[in-house]
């Protein structure tokens, strides 16, 4: 997907962060965003007509860095989640291609209760299996996503691995005995998702009064965040709606209840 975006003219600045904005001296409309290369520590200005905040759980930080004087509260929390990608001798590449015909499968379960969370299991390409479900709000959000690896703990990784063994390990002969861990671990991970207590994401054009920028009929500042653990599933639809809003078109979906003002009003109830 990234390659296709670049083919269509998208310019990626990485590693970089947005540090400030510049307004047009006459109209008061934002005309540039200043970004900093976090390796070279150099800055450059990028002309812009629209800014989209879609930084997941880092969205509040990104918003505050660009608009430090704004009193708006972005009600996005950080939902951490451990996951495990593995392969099983009982789910081979030939089975994936010949038996399942490229179809994917998902399992949502409360078993085993001894693991203390509700595992979610998904089949992936290349005969890989993804297991997750150990989530929490107690891990501090790191400065950047790549710092997450240093926050992983052995005990929580072991809980995820144990759930995988019980659910997908090799059964012993007969009905007695625990499953044997013969799984090949491909990757262990800790990720952070944008979580909003209301359960509704923010997909909106920000009101000019929130940031103190000059008003205009269309364009300006937009925000798309707060999808919780379903960001991947909802990404394409959200992207389509955001593109329509930025272009001044009628959105394909009704997102009137997903505005920041509406979310702030709900938080006061």
Automatic annotation (TrEMBL):
Coiled coil: none
Bilayer-crossing regions: none
Assigned GO CC terms: cytosol; late endosome
Single biological process term from Gene Ontology: retrograde transport, endosome to Golgi
Domain (FAD dependent oxidoreductase) ranges: 2-245
Domain of life: Eukaryota
InterPro entries assigned to the protein according to its UniProt record, in alphabetical order: FAD-dep_OxRdtase, FAD/NAD-bd_sf
UniProt-recorded name of the protein: FAD dependent oxidoreductase domain-containing protein
Lineage: Eukaryota, Fungi, Dikarya, Ascomycota, Pezizomycotina
